[in-house]
Amino acid sequence: MRENDLLTAAMLGDSEEVRRLLAAGATPDTPGPLYQAAVQGHAGIVRMLLAAGAGPDRESEDDAEGLPLCAAACWGHLDVVNALLDAGADPDLREAPGAMTALHWAAAGDRLAVTRALLSRGADPDLRDSAGNTALSRAAERGSAAVVRALLDHGATPEARALDLARRHAGLDIEAEVRARAGERAAEGARVSVRREEAEGGGVRVVAEVRDDAGRLRSQTQLGTGHAEIVRLLESRR
């Protein structure tokens, strides 16, 4: 049995192989498998690894340290978030001093259901990252009105920074803004397209995609359109 067999099976979502490797003596708490399963949203494998003894706060030690809960929150994998929290994951743990918590990642990504799950398990909405942002200011900048409302309803302080960020974006042409941001990171010859989609909890999200000349997706830039509503929400809570 190779050391990385369990990591590969967890990343690929091969639950039968994960089960076989654990039965054959693979160590569930080695760095990597739980994190990779969390990134990919393989909730069944996450629960399998946790039941076998993986620590819910076990960091990955591959290219960069990462926490399973932060990864799942970033990608909006609610079932994985709940599995980790059920196993005792610390909702306020950071991947490094001053780094973003899982709640920061959820708020910045417009992940309403994950935001609510973390708040219901005691995540602190007023913690700041090294840039001085709370989850509320991350959501305000993103234009995620439903997430801002959820944070406020769970006791987040309606801080001046969040209000300033919302005001700053309220007058922008969001479609032009995301197109410009995407273009800054696009390689020569890449194509930038923009679409609108419904966000979690209602509202509209504007998404700019960068694709190479072969049509492969290279990056995405997203902003919500709820900045004006967020200004009203924050002003009403001050």
TrEMBL record:
It comes from the Bacteria. SUPFAM superfamilies: Ankyrin repeat. InterPro entries: Ankyrin_rpt, Ankyrin_rpt-contain_sf. Coiled coil: none annotated. ANK repeats lie at residues 29-61, 68-96, 98-130, 131-163. Keywords: ANK repeat, Repeat. The keyword Isomerase does not apply. PROSITE patterns: ANK_REP_REGION, ANK_REPEAT. This is Uncharacterized protein. It comes from Nonomuraea gerenzanensis. The lineage of its organism: Bacteria, Bacillati, Actinomycetota, Actinomycetes, Streptosporangiales.
